[in-house]
Amino acid sequence: MERVGEVISFGNWLQNTSWALALATSDWAYPFVQATHFTGLSLWVGTSVAVDLSLLGIGNKRQPPSRLSDALLMWNWIGFALAITGGFLLFSVSAATYLINAAFLTKLALLIPLALALHIVIQQKVRAWGQMPHIPTVAKLAGWAELLLWLSVATAAVSIPYVG
Amino acid sequence: MLLHLGRLLQDNSFIVTINSLPVTAAALEIIHYFSMFLVVGPTVMVDLRVLGAADRHHPAAELAERFFPWVWWALALNALSGFVMFAGDATAYIPDSTFHAKLLVILLAVAFTLAVQWNVPKWDRLPAMPAAAKTVALLSLLLWIGAILAGVEVPALSGIG
Predict the structure, then answer these.
(1) Residue A112 — pLDDT band, cuts 50, 70, 90?
(2) Domain ranges (residues) in chain A
(3) pTM
(4) Which residues of chain A are at the B interface, by a Cβ-Cβ cutoff of 8 Å?
(5) Which of A13, B40, B72, B159 has the most CB atoms around it within 10 Å of its CB?
(6) Considering CB atoms only, which of A43, A60, A72 is closest to B65?
(7) Could you report the predicted ipTM of this complex, rounded to two decimals?
């Protein structure tokens, strides 16, 4: 119980920092931060899912998935950086509420780490998979799993207001 | 007239049910967000390639050829889920100027994206990307970010949704 109290007091501290208060009370800043979060997510999810789909053999088969992964790599991570920066700022506005929301906790502590770990594995393995005569089953499973995990992250995110 | 149609739409039992059940309402949102990511992310990547800020070692048409079929499928899904959510509260959305702005920005973004898609093979054959190509790509990129911003401004400014 003491740990829960500490987490909530961290949330209270965060949402009372000057930037969190400024964001919460400004008429225009909050939508701009939301738009940053969604633009980052578009780059991150859009480029990650593109590689997953190419592992599944959907789309142009002449270009190996590794070529697509290399082409998208830098903007993939720029998207991620934008998404977490925006996401952290949005979280900081009502941190104490988010920290006791089951959907938020599932998203942050379970689904995002899993999806991120699998994403990094795919990025490491994609070249080796692409050199094989056929894309191996494990690669297709990884592609499906990453796609479904990001969809679960979106599901958890959308569920936050329904749960809380 | 439009408001009358909006009222008919809003009172349709299918529309009422799908928007009021938590499971289907959440499913609509998930589809709308996820398909939006699949429209904007890949489109912006092609725009960044035309601008010379991504994947400079390969022809721009290579990314375009791979991405645009997905982009249009995702846009169809995005428009469909968006329409069902709009229908649920049609009489509030129809007169709302922020919502009008959102639709206008999306239409312009689609127009500039089509311009990129149609011209990329031609631009690729030139020794360097012409300034006009970069202008069109930059406008497509900015308009999609603008569409996202307009999307979040509708609930922020008008309180609908």
Answers:
(1) very high
(2) 2-163
(3) 0.95
(4) 30-32, 34-35, 38-39, 41-47, 49-50, 53-54, 59-60, 63, 67-68, 71-72, 74-75, 79, 150-151, 154-155, 157-159, 162
(5) B40
(6) A60
(7) 0.94
